[in-house]
What does this fold into?
Amino acid sequence: MEGLLSLLLFAGFFFLMMRFGCGAHMAHGGHGTHDDDKPVKNIDPVCGMEVDMDKGYGKMHEKQLFRFCSHDCLDRFESNPGQYTQALDKRVGG
It folds into this structure.
């Protein structure tokens, strides 16, 4: 009985943290900008187009998320990622 009570308390705490605490960010899209007036935009490393965070295609590469305007740009990136990340670094000035 004591084990069941501990389990229920832990489950209740876990639910509250996932609903209202740090876990709420995971369930609702992660840590992004909390300023809802400015949508997050990304630059497609292949063609240079601006891509909304909720549009296009995404690809994780070397712990960084890249957004692409089309599947064609994604395919071109996957064929040679180094070419496009270096070109993006030059455009951004990094």
Remarks:
- Residues 40-94 form one domain.
